[in-house]
Amino acid sequence: MFGSKVEHKVRDPAACDSIRYDNRPRGPMVGFLCRFLLFFAYCLLLSVCHLKLERLGLYCRTRSSSRPHLDSRTGAENEDKNGSLAMLWAETLVTTGACFLLAQGYYGVRAARERMERVRQTIVTLAYSFIKTTTTDCGMGHGRQELQVLIYECLALLAAYPVALLEQMRGNTCEPAITRYCQDTSKALKRLRDGDDTVIARHFYRREPWVISGRGHHQFATVEYFFEVFALQLQLEFSRQSMRTKGPSLSTQHIIYNLRNHFENFVDLGNLDDRRTPIIRENIDMLALAGRECGIFSIIDVIPTAFLWSVHLAGWLIALYCPVQNCDWLITWTPAEFEDSEALQFPTLAIMVVMAVLSVLSAMLTTVLAEMWRMWDPFGTGTNTHAWILGIATEIDNMLNEFYEYDTKGLIRKHAYMDPSAYLNDVRFGACGSSGNKAQTV
Questions:
Q1: What is the DSSP letter of 71?
Q2: Coil, strand or helix at 208
Q3: Is 60 exceeded by the pLDDT of residue 31?
Q4: What is the pLDDT of residue 45?
Q5: Into how many domains does the chain fold?
Q6: Residues 259 and 323 in one domain
Q7: What distance, in Å, lies between the first and last C-alpha atoms of the chain?
Q8: Which one of 3, 153, 226, 242 has the lowest number of neighbouring Cβ atoms within 10 Å?
Q9: Among its keywords, does the record have Transmembrane helix (predicted)?
Q10: CA separation for the pair 362, 36 (Å, rounded)
Q11: Are residues 341 and 369 in the same domain?
């Protein structure tokens, strides 16, 4: 993912072409075609320039007139034996090593995806808890206006957590002022939802407030793509910031620390029911634990680097040597009268088919090696991490705006922190304070 695509998404949040929302990375077809063309050009070079290469000392043919004869048959046999032994060792190393590393890498990607989804589900659960279970219907504590800003700050911290976690697992020691960014973001969102659209571009925002008549909902404007764009801008900040810390990054720890502080303040001031606090506290701990578990599968952690590079280099050696080893297939088309000619002679269509077959084999081998590296880097090229980050931010946006805000007949749970009357029933449902009706609307 290039920075220009991220910037394009920031400028036009509704565009889905530049950034895909599925976690599966792009297929290897483009890389395979590039490698195929590279090896085909390599085979064509060997076929066309083999006479010039033999004059430089690179003998493509087993029986070449320009190749110096060995003194004895034993020397030729020893040379062939040594070459065969080296190729056998390289092929064995690549076959066994690539299969083992692919299997281990696949397991690592699957385990990393499980942790990523655990982080995602925990963030969504916490966002729902902050939106739906905090209330101003208490004798003390934060008022409605102040509580809205704090809830939006918690949501911004939750949207920023996967971005900071991803950069930390990639070894980025940049530490932008995430806490201050989230505070500024929460204040901007508060002004937007109150109807002030001067703080941000209009395509992030829809002015019409949605109201369910008679249900006691606080009127607010719908802000689209807000946390999604915030996550993208935070990614750009991590990539553009040149200042790095000497020690490891602690951005994720700062986010968890601030979430715990806000949560404990809500509990102490009565903005959260004591019966719900153990569940929310446990989810914050699960989020911190799942984030630390994700770091185990990052490429900067414990990986067999020497083994990976040995298999990689041996595989490329085999891919490059395969056309040379079968060079006789590429030059048998040369007529006898052109054997000693300086002019370049292009191969026939039949020889080009042989070149294509050799190029496909070499391209397949190098594509498997590239897939091996991708498997061992699940947070780099192994998965589409943009889909993970934007998926979390999109869910937070949808919960904040209500998934089914257009359905005025559905019984939805109100955003209690926005209106003290959220726990009161509409007269149409019997606002008598009965527990059965209250359970439907709370």
A1: S
A2: strand
A3: yes
A4: 82
A5: 2
A6: no
A7: 43
A8: 242
A9: yes
A10: 8
A11: yes
